[in-house]
Design goal:
- The complex is a heterodimer.
- Chain A has a domain at 1-28.
- In chain A, 20% of the residues are buried.
- By secondary structure, chain A is mainly α.
- Chain A contains three helices and no strands.
- Chain B has two domains: 30-133; 164-264, no CATH class.
- Chain B has eight helices and no strands.
- The longest helix of chain B is centred in the middle third of the chain and has 54 residues, at 135-188.
- Chain B is elongated and about 90 Å long.
- The chains are: A mainly alpha, B mainly alpha.
- At the A-B interface, helix 1, helix 2 and helix 3 of A face helix 1, helix 2, helix 3, helix 4 and helix 5 of B.
């Protein structure tokens, strides 16, 4: 009987431990591991071109790389999504 | 009996794992998804402004209990959709920074922590909207939102600057790789035709602007560091002015290099 009780206690202690760890993990706001992102697809606003690292590029290779760099430059010129939208905060209810 | 305990243990472990995985996945929307959500919620917010203004005019004209109750409901609705739109914007900038972090060189986590704090506060503030019982309470809550949104906007400007600066730096680094390739290519050209000589001269002239681009990026970075405490709009304009100039010079160099390559074909 005591053995059974001990086993139950052990199981609950283990589950309690996992719950505690999850609770601490979720509430520890200053831990970057919680705030850091999970893998996401690439956005359109940051450069994607990676010129090949060969020191002596052929004309065609350089031409392609420059085209990709030009495209990246154009992309970041056009992105305005991060501008904060405007909101009405002065409701004028108590005038 | 032993099997039963093992079963119970496995069941709880699996349930916990699933719950944790679900909550983690729920937070992992892409910036594109978050931006679509922001557009949708901001449209709902704009749609709620006209009914609110109508109810406000009626209340200011008649001042009856009915019109006051109607205005309180319209205010609650407006604040509700406003909270959702601000939350969407906050989630969007967080996800965009997250994506940019993976590609660019930015590694600081302070902004994530701040955005998590703001999202938690917005969640709490959103819960308060439903419990509003007077117009003065609605006005006070709106003023609180205003203060909070100032902080979020500042972070938004910071992220915009960081993403733009790091993007320009990456493009500039890529351009430098091309510069080295082209330099090696031109050095290999042993002939002295007027075309090769002209190409070498043009290449040398274009390269003089590399220092200018570095300076402009450095100036933008200096302004970006001041964003934490300074005027966000003024500093952001300063950053964009420098970055736009840097982008223009980079564009000229790209066109120049393309011209050199075309002439040597």
């Amino acid at each position: 009987m005591i053995k059974k009780l001990l086993m139950i206690l052990l199981v609950f202690a283990f589950i309690g431990g996992i719950l505690f760890l999850l609770y601490v993990g979720k509430n520890k706001m200053h831990a970057p591991s919680i705030s850091l992102p999970v893998p996401i697809s690439q956005p359109t606003s940051v450069p994607e071109a990676s010129p090949s690292a060969t020191p002596n590029g052929s004309i065609v290779e350089m031409e392609n790389d420059l085209k990709l760099i030009g495209n990246d430059l154009q992309k970041i010129k056009e992105d305005t999504r991060l501008n904060p939208p405007a909101f009405l905060f002065d409701l004028g209810l108590t005038k | 009996m032993k099997k039963f305990y093992v079963f119970i243990f496995l069941f709880f472990s699996l349930a916990l794992f699933l719950l944790y995985t679900k909550s983690t996945l729920a937070q992992s929307k892409t910036s594109t998804e978050n931006y679509q959500e922001l557009l949708q919620n901001y449209r709902s917010y704009q749609d709620a402004i006209t009914p609110f203004n109508t109810k406000k005019s009626r209340y200011l004209t008649y001042g009856t209990v009915d019109t006051q109750a109607e205005l309180l409901d319209a205010s609650k609705n407006l604040l509700n959709v406003e909270t959702r739109a601000i939350t969407s914007y906050t989630s969007f900038i967080k996800s965009l920074l997250a994506e940019a972090t993976q590609i660019l060189q930015y590694r600081d986590t302070v902004l994530y922590i701040k955005l998590d704090d703001e999202l938690s506060s917005l969640n709490i503030a959103g819960g308060k909207v439903g419990t509003l019982s007077s117009l003065s309470e609605a006005e006070t809550l709106s003023a609180d939102f205003s203060d909070q949104y100032k902080k979020i906007s500042r972070i938004g400007y910071q992220i915009k600057s960081i993403v733009e600066i790091e993007s320009v730096k990456k493009i500039f680094a890529n351009l430098q790789v091309e510069k080295n390739k082209l330099e090696n290519f031109l050095n290999e050209q042993t002939g002295s035709t007027s075309q090769i000589l002209a190409a070498k001269e043009k290449f040398s002239t274009l390269n003089q602007d590399f220092g200018r681009i570095s300076d402009l990026i450095s100036q933008a970075e200096t302004s970006q560091k001041k964003l934490e405490n300074g005027d966000p709009i003024g500093l952001t304009q300063e950053i964009w002015k420098n970055l736009n100039e840097a982008k223009a010079v980079i564009g000229q160099i790209i066109t120049g290099y393309q011209n050199i390559i075309f002439s040597l074909k």
